[in-house]
Amino acid sequence: MHLHESVVIGAGQAGLSASYHLLRLGVGHVLLDANDAAGGAWRHRWDSLTMDDVHGIADLPGSPAPQRDGRRANDVLPGWFEAYEREHGLPVVRPVVVDDVTSDGDLLVVRAGDRRWTTRTLVNATGTWTRPFVPHYPGIERFRGEQLHTVDYPGPEHFRGRRVVVVGGGASAVQLLGEIAPVADTVWVTRRPPVWRTGDFDPEAGRAAVALVEERVRRGLPPASVVSVTGLALREQERAAEHLGAYDRRPMFERVEPDGVRWADGSYEPADVILWATGFRPAVAHLGALRLRSSHGGIRLDGTTAVADPRVQLVGYGPSASTIGANRAGRAAAVTVARQLRAEAA
After folding, report:
1. How far is CA 278 from the centre of its chain?
2. Which residues contact 20 (CB under 8 A, 6 or more apart)?
3. Among 129, 138, 131, 105, which Cα is nearest to 119's?
4. What is the pLDDT along the chain (346 residues), one digit of tens a residue?
5. Angle CA(175)–CA(180)–CA(182) in degrees, nearest 5?
6. Sequence-ordered alpha helix ranges (H) in 194-255
7. In the chain, count of helices (H) and strands (E)?
8. What are the chain's domains?
9. How far is it, in rounded angstroms, from Cα 248 to Cα 269?
Protein backbone atom coordinates (compact mmCIF):
# COMPACT_ATOMS: atom_id res chain seq x y z
CA MET A 1 0.00 0.00 0.00
CA HIS A 2 1.33 3.40 -1.00
CA LEU A 3 0.64 6.08 1.58
CA HIS A 4 0.12 9.58 0.15
CA GLU A 5 0.72 12.69 2.17
CA SER A 6 -2.31 14.23 0.51
CA VAL A 7 -4.97 13.53 -2.12
CA VAL A 8 -6.67 16.36 -4.02
CA ILE A 9 -10.09 15.57 -5.52
CA GLY A 10 -11.10 17.81 -8.40
CA ALA A 11 -9.00 19.61 -11.04
CA GLY A 12 -10.93 22.83 -11.45
CA GLN A 13 -9.35 26.14 -10.56
CA ALA A 14 -9.33 25.49 -6.81
CA GLY A 15 -7.87 22.01 -7.22
CA LEU A 16 -5.14 23.19 -9.59
CA SER A 17 -4.21 25.96 -7.17
CA ALA A 18 -4.03 23.52 -4.26
CA SER A 19 -1.91 21.04 -6.24
CA TYR A 20 0.48 23.80 -7.40
CA HIS A 21 1.08 24.98 -3.84
CA LEU A 22 1.40 21.43 -2.46
CA LEU A 23 4.16 20.78 -5.00
CA ARG A 24 5.95 23.99 -4.05
CA LEU A 25 5.74 22.98 -0.39
CA GLY A 26 7.16 19.52 -1.11
CA VAL A 27 3.98 17.64 -0.19
CA GLY A 28 3.66 14.35 -2.06
CA HIS A 29 0.15 14.00 -3.46
CA VAL A 30 -2.05 12.92 -6.32
CA LEU A 31 -4.72 15.00 -8.05
CA LEU A 32 -7.83 12.98 -9.00
CA ASP A 33 -10.15 14.36 -11.66
CA ALA A 34 -13.49 12.96 -12.82
CA ASN A 35 -13.20 14.41 -16.33
CA ASP A 36 -11.38 12.63 -19.12
CA ALA A 37 -9.43 15.81 -19.97
CA ALA A 38 -8.46 19.11 -18.36
CA GLY A 39 -10.85 21.99 -17.92
CA GLY A 40 -13.09 21.24 -14.95
CA ALA A 41 -16.65 22.53 -15.30
CA TRP A 42 -15.58 24.83 -18.15
CA ARG A 43 -15.50 21.82 -20.47
CA HIS A 44 -19.26 21.52 -20.11
CA ARG A 45 -20.34 25.14 -20.54
CA TRP A 46 -22.50 26.05 -23.51
CA ASP A 47 -20.94 26.97 -26.84
CA SER A 48 -22.35 30.52 -26.92
CA LEU A 49 -20.51 31.45 -23.69
CA THR A 50 -17.50 33.50 -24.78
CA MET A 51 -14.56 34.90 -22.86
CA ASP A 52 -16.33 38.25 -23.01
CA ASP A 53 -19.26 36.69 -21.16
CA VAL A 54 -17.53 34.91 -18.28
CA HIS A 55 -17.50 36.58 -14.89
CA GLY A 56 -14.14 37.45 -13.36
CA ILE A 57 -11.77 34.64 -14.29
CA ALA A 58 -8.90 34.94 -11.83
CA ASP A 59 -5.28 34.13 -12.59
CA LEU A 60 -3.89 30.75 -11.65
CA PRO A 61 -0.75 30.86 -9.47
CA GLY A 62 2.05 31.91 -11.78
CA SER A 63 -0.18 32.06 -14.87
CA PRO A 64 -2.35 35.01 -15.95
CA ALA A 65 -5.89 34.28 -17.11
CA PRO A 66 -6.57 34.32 -20.86
CA GLN A 67 -7.67 37.63 -22.32
CA ARG A 68 -11.31 38.53 -22.70
CA ASP A 69 -12.47 38.25 -26.31
CA GLY A 70 -15.01 36.50 -28.48
CA ARG A 71 -13.50 33.01 -28.29
CA ARG A 72 -15.54 30.17 -26.78
CA ALA A 73 -14.89 29.76 -23.06
CA ASN A 74 -15.31 25.98 -23.29
CA ASP A 75 -12.30 25.90 -25.64
CA VAL A 76 -10.06 28.58 -24.16
CA LEU A 77 -10.22 27.74 -20.46
CA PRO A 78 -9.77 23.96 -20.78
CA GLY A 79 -6.78 24.67 -23.01
CA TRP A 80 -5.36 27.00 -20.36
CA PHE A 81 -5.88 24.40 -17.63
CA GLU A 82 -4.27 21.69 -19.76
CA ALA A 83 -1.19 23.82 -20.42
CA TYR A 84 -0.99 24.70 -16.73
CA GLU A 85 -1.07 21.05 -15.64
CA ARG A 86 1.67 20.22 -18.13
CA GLU A 87 3.87 23.24 -17.40
CA HIS A 88 3.88 22.65 -13.64
CA GLY A 89 3.92 18.86 -13.73
CA LEU A 90 0.79 18.48 -11.64
CA PRO A 91 0.24 14.81 -10.69
CA VAL A 92 -3.19 14.41 -12.31
CA VAL A 93 -4.90 11.03 -12.63
CA ARG A 94 -8.05 10.92 -14.77
CA PRO A 95 -10.74 9.97 -15.24
CA VAL A 96 -11.39 9.08 -11.61
CA VAL A 97 -14.93 9.37 -10.22
CA VAL A 98 -14.57 9.13 -6.46
CA ASP A 99 -17.27 7.04 -4.79
CA ASP A 100 -16.47 7.77 -1.17
CA VAL A 101 -13.89 8.75 1.40
CA THR A 102 -13.72 6.83 4.66
CA SER A 103 -11.63 6.96 7.80
CA ASP A 104 -9.26 4.13 8.67
CA GLY A 105 -7.71 5.01 12.01
CA ASP A 106 -5.48 8.04 11.47
CA LEU A 107 -5.66 7.67 7.69
CA LEU A 108 -8.23 8.41 5.01
CA VAL A 109 -9.14 6.01 2.20
CA VAL A 110 -10.38 7.37 -1.13
CA ARG A 111 -12.29 4.81 -3.19
CA ALA A 112 -13.19 4.94 -6.89
CA GLY A 113 -14.56 1.64 -8.14
CA ASP A 114 -11.93 -0.99 -7.36
CA ARG A 115 -9.15 1.59 -6.92
CA ARG A 116 -7.97 2.93 -3.57
CA TRP A 117 -5.75 5.79 -2.42
CA THR A 118 -4.70 5.94 1.22
CA THR A 119 -3.68 9.34 2.52
CA ARG A 120 -2.89 11.34 5.61
CA THR A 121 -4.82 14.40 4.43
CA LEU A 122 -7.42 15.31 1.83
CA VAL A 123 -8.13 18.46 -0.19
CA ASN A 124 -11.64 18.32 -1.65
CA ALA A 125 -12.12 20.57 -4.69
CA THR A 126 -15.16 19.04 -6.36
CA GLY A 127 -17.11 22.28 -6.82
CA THR A 128 -20.81 22.31 -7.68
CA TRP A 129 -21.27 21.75 -11.44
CA THR A 130 -22.22 18.07 -11.08
CA ARG A 131 -25.07 18.90 -8.69
CA PRO A 132 -27.59 21.13 -10.49
CA PHE A 133 -30.51 22.13 -8.29
CA VAL A 134 -34.13 22.22 -9.45
CA PRO A 135 -36.70 23.18 -6.80
CA HIS A 136 -39.94 21.24 -6.64
CA TYR A 137 -43.23 22.96 -7.40
CA PRO A 138 -46.64 21.28 -7.49
CA GLY A 139 -47.41 19.93 -10.95
CA ILE A 140 -43.81 19.99 -12.19
CA GLU A 141 -44.05 16.32 -13.22
CA ARG A 142 -47.11 16.97 -15.42
CA PHE A 143 -45.61 19.75 -17.55
CA ARG A 144 -45.92 18.71 -21.20
CA GLY A 145 -43.27 21.07 -22.52
CA GLU A 146 -39.51 20.92 -22.13
CA GLN A 147 -37.66 21.50 -18.86
CA LEU A 148 -33.94 22.29 -18.81
CA HIS A 149 -31.43 23.35 -16.21
CA THR A 150 -28.57 25.74 -16.92
CA VAL A 151 -26.24 22.73 -16.98
CA ASP A 152 -28.05 21.49 -20.13
CA TYR A 153 -28.38 24.86 -21.87
CA PRO A 154 -28.04 24.22 -25.64
CA GLY A 155 -27.73 27.82 -26.86
CA PRO A 156 -30.30 30.42 -27.92
CA GLU A 157 -31.29 28.92 -31.28
CA HIS A 158 -32.88 25.98 -29.47
CA PHE A 159 -35.57 28.36 -28.16
CA ARG A 160 -36.30 30.37 -31.30
CA GLY A 161 -40.01 31.15 -31.64
CA ARG A 162 -40.95 29.47 -28.37
CA ARG A 163 -42.41 30.73 -25.09
CA VAL A 164 -39.76 30.35 -22.36
CA VAL A 165 -40.14 30.82 -18.62
CA VAL A 166 -36.72 31.46 -17.07
CA VAL A 167 -36.57 30.76 -13.32
CA GLY A 168 -33.80 32.11 -11.10
CA GLY A 169 -32.40 35.35 -9.77
CA GLY A 170 -28.69 34.91 -10.40
CA ALA A 171 -26.17 35.99 -13.01
CA SER A 172 -26.83 32.93 -15.18
CA ALA A 173 -30.51 33.82 -15.53
CA VAL A 174 -29.59 37.37 -16.55
CA GLN A 175 -27.10 36.11 -19.10
CA LEU A 176 -29.39 33.46 -20.59
CA LEU A 177 -32.25 35.94 -20.88
CA GLY A 178 -29.83 38.19 -22.74
CA GLU A 179 -29.33 35.45 -25.32
CA ILE A 180 -32.85 34.03 -25.52
CA ALA A 181 -35.06 37.14 -25.43
CA PRO A 182 -34.06 38.39 -28.91
CA VAL A 183 -35.23 35.09 -30.49
CA ALA A 184 -38.10 33.97 -28.22
CA ASP A 185 -40.85 35.22 -25.92
CA THR A 186 -39.56 35.14 -22.36
CA VAL A 187 -40.90 35.55 -18.84
CA TRP A 188 -38.46 36.00 -15.95
CA VAL A 189 -39.52 34.58 -12.58
CA THR A 190 -37.63 34.90 -9.27
CA ARG A 191 -38.41 34.19 -5.62
CA ARG A 192 -37.09 37.57 -4.48
CA PRO A 193 -36.75 40.88 -6.31
CA PRO A 194 -33.35 41.03 -8.02
CA VAL A 195 -30.72 43.30 -6.49
CA TRP A 196 -28.93 45.29 -9.17
CA ARG A 197 -25.37 46.41 -8.54
CA THR A 198 -24.80 50.09 -9.15
CA GLY A 199 -21.03 50.34 -8.70
CA ASP A 200 -18.11 48.56 -10.33
CA PHE A 201 -17.21 45.07 -9.15
CA ASP A 202 -13.61 45.82 -8.21
CA PRO A 203 -11.24 43.59 -6.19
CA GLU A 204 -12.34 45.21 -2.94
CA ALA A 205 -15.98 44.38 -3.67
CA GLY A 206 -14.94 40.82 -4.52
CA ARG A 207 -13.13 40.40 -1.21
CA ALA A 208 -16.12 41.78 0.67
CA ALA A 209 -18.43 39.30 -1.08
CA VAL A 210 -16.14 36.38 -0.25
CA ALA A 211 -16.02 37.48 3.40
CA LEU A 212 -19.82 37.35 3.66
CA VAL A 213 -19.93 33.78 2.37
CA GLU A 214 -16.98 32.80 4.59
CA GLU A 215 -18.96 33.87 7.63
CA ARG A 216 -21.75 31.46 6.70
CA VAL A 217 -19.47 28.44 6.40
CA ARG A 218 -17.66 29.44 9.59
CA ARG A 219 -21.00 29.05 11.35
CA GLY A 220 -21.75 25.72 9.67
CA LEU A 221 -24.59 27.07 7.52
CA PRO A 222 -25.17 25.86 3.95
CA PRO A 223 -23.01 28.14 1.76
CA ALA A 224 -24.52 30.89 -0.34
CA SER A 225 -22.92 31.61 -3.70
CA VAL A 226 -20.50 34.52 -3.99
CA VAL A 227 -22.63 35.87 -6.84
CA SER A 228 -25.68 35.94 -4.54
CA VAL A 229 -24.05 38.67 -2.44
CA THR A 230 -22.46 40.72 -5.23
CA GLY A 231 -25.66 41.82 -6.94
CA LEU A 232 -26.50 41.74 -10.64
CA ALA A 233 -25.37 43.96 -13.49
CA LEU A 234 -26.27 44.18 -17.16
CA ARG A 235 -23.54 44.13 -19.77
CA GLU A 236 -23.66 45.56 -23.26
CA GLN A 237 -24.59 42.19 -24.76
CA GLU A 238 -27.74 42.16 -22.59
CA ARG A 239 -29.02 45.62 -23.53
CA ALA A 240 -31.10 44.33 -26.45
CA ALA A 241 -32.94 41.99 -24.07
CA GLU A 242 -33.42 44.87 -21.65
CA HIS A 243 -35.08 46.96 -24.36
CA LEU A 244 -37.42 44.03 -25.06
CA GLY A 245 -38.51 43.99 -21.40
CA ALA A 246 -36.84 40.67 -20.57
CA TYR A 247 -35.78 41.88 -17.13
CA ASP A 248 -39.27 42.92 -16.04
CA ARG A 249 -39.36 40.26 -13.39
CA ARG A 250 -42.42 38.46 -12.04
CA PRO A 251 -42.65 36.83 -8.58
CA MET A 252 -42.44 33.06 -8.27
CA PHE A 253 -45.40 31.11 -9.57
CA GLU A 254 -47.35 28.81 -7.26
CA ARG A 255 -47.62 25.73 -9.44
CA VAL A 256 -46.79 24.22 -12.81
CA GLU A 257 -49.62 23.14 -15.10
CA PRO A 258 -49.39 20.90 -18.18
CA ASP A 259 -48.97 23.84 -20.58
CA GLY A 260 -47.70 26.67 -18.40
CA VAL A 261 -47.38 28.11 -14.91
CA ARG A 262 -49.95 29.69 -12.58
CA TRP A 263 -49.57 32.23 -9.80
CA ALA A 264 -51.41 32.35 -6.49
CA ASP A 265 -53.63 35.19 -7.74
CA GLY A 266 -54.88 32.94 -10.55
CA SER A 267 -52.88 34.58 -13.34
CA TYR A 268 -51.47 32.17 -15.91
CA GLU A 269 -48.59 32.13 -18.36
CA PRO A 270 -48.44 29.55 -21.17
CA ALA A 271 -45.00 28.03 -21.71
CA ASP A 272 -43.25 25.73 -24.15
CA VAL A 273 -40.08 25.60 -22.02
CA ILE A 274 -39.16 26.09 -18.38
CA LEU A 275 -35.46 26.91 -18.01
CA TRP A 276 -34.31 26.43 -14.43
CA ALA A 277 -31.40 28.81 -13.77
CA THR A 278 -31.63 27.85 -10.13
CA GLY A 279 -28.03 27.15 -9.27
CA PHE A 280 -26.10 24.24 -7.88
CA ARG A 281 -25.33 22.53 -4.60
CA PRO A 282 -21.87 21.48 -3.35
CA ALA A 283 -20.76 18.10 -4.71
CA VAL A 284 -19.75 16.55 -1.38
CA ALA A 285 -21.86 13.38 -1.14
CA HIS A 286 -18.69 11.27 -1.36
CA LEU A 287 -17.61 12.75 1.99
CA GLY A 288 -20.77 11.58 3.76
CA ALA A 289 -19.09 8.82 5.77
CA LEU A 290 -16.84 11.40 7.44
CA ARG A 291 -19.89 13.14 9.00
CA LEU A 292 -18.64 16.64 8.31
CA ARG A 293 -22.02 18.41 8.30
CA SER A 294 -23.07 20.53 11.25
CA SER A 295 -26.54 20.60 12.79
CA HIS A 296 -27.22 23.65 10.60
CA GLY A 297 -26.87 21.59 7.40
CA GLY A 298 -23.56 22.92 6.11
CA ILE A 299 -19.93 21.91 6.63
CA ARG A 300 -18.39 24.15 9.24
CA LEU A 301 -14.97 25.44 8.19
CA ASP A 302 -12.14 27.16 9.98
CA GLY A 303 -10.47 28.75 6.97
CA THR A 304 -10.44 25.77 4.61
CA THR A 305 -10.29 23.13 7.36
CA ALA A 306 -13.34 21.00 8.17
CA VAL A 307 -13.94 21.52 11.89
CA ALA A 308 -15.40 18.02 12.27
CA ASP A 309 -12.27 16.40 10.75
CA PRO A 310 -9.15 18.60 10.42
CA ARG A 311 -7.55 16.09 8.04
CA VAL A 312 -9.95 17.41 5.40
CA GLN A 313 -9.61 20.73 3.56
CA LEU A 314 -12.45 22.06 1.40
CA VAL A 315 -11.75 24.40 -1.50
CA GLY A 316 -14.27 25.25 -4.18
CA TYR A 317 -16.85 25.23 -1.38
CA GLY A 318 -18.70 28.30 -0.19
CA PRO A 319 -16.47 31.36 -0.57
CA SER A 320 -14.05 29.57 -2.89
CA ALA A 321 -16.75 28.22 -5.22
CA SER A 322 -15.94 31.08 -7.61
CA THR A 323 -12.57 31.95 -9.10
CA ILE A 324 -12.52 35.02 -6.81
CA GLY A 325 -11.74 32.81 -3.83
CA ALA A 326 -10.45 29.60 -5.40
CA ASN A 327 -6.77 30.48 -5.69
CA ARG A 328 -6.50 31.92 -2.21
CA ALA A 329 -8.26 28.87 -0.78
CA GLY A 330 -5.97 26.50 -2.69
CA ARG A 331 -2.90 28.13 -1.20
CA ALA A 332 -4.42 28.20 2.30
CA ALA A 333 -5.32 24.52 2.11
CA ALA A 334 -1.84 23.54 0.93
CA VAL A 335 -0.17 25.55 3.70
CA THR A 336 -2.45 23.94 6.30
CA VAL A 337 -1.73 20.44 4.98
CA ALA A 338 2.04 21.06 5.08
CA ARG A 339 1.75 22.40 8.64
CA GLN A 340 -0.25 19.36 9.78
CA LEU A 341 2.24 16.94 8.24
CA ARG A 342 5.17 18.71 9.93
CA ALA A 343 3.38 18.54 13.27
CA GLU A 344 2.79 14.80 12.85
CA ALA A 345 6.45 14.23 12.02
CA ALA A 346 7.73 16.24 15.00
Report:
1. 12
2. 60, 61, 62, 88, 90, 330, 334
3. 105
4. 799 999 999 999 999 999 999 999 999 999 999 999 999 999 999 898 899 888 768 899 999 999 989 999 999 999 999 999 999 999 999 999 999 999 999 999 999 999 999 999 999 999 999 999 999 999 999 999 999 999 999 999 999 999 999 999 998 999 999 999 999 999 999 999 988 876 655 556 555 556 656 666 666 666 665 555 567 888 888 999 999 999 999 999 999 999 999 999 999 999 999 999 999 999 999 999 999 998 888 999 898 999 999 999 999 887 655 555 788 889 999 999 999 999 988 7
5. 115
6. 203-218, 227-230, 239-243
7. 7, 17
8. 3-130+280-345 (3.50.50.60), 140-196+232-276 (3.50.50.60)
9. 14
For 103-127, what is the HEC assignment?
EECCEEEEEECCEEEEEEEEEECCC
Separation between Cα atoms, residue 278 and residue 321, nearest integer Å:
16
H or E stretch including 21?
helix 13-24
* CA dist., res. 189 & res. 289, Å (int): 38
Q: Which of helix, strand or coil describes residue 227?
A: helix
Residues 189 and 169: their CA atoms lie apart, in Å, by 8
346: CB partners within 8 A, 6+ apart: none
Which pTM does this prediction carry? 0.87
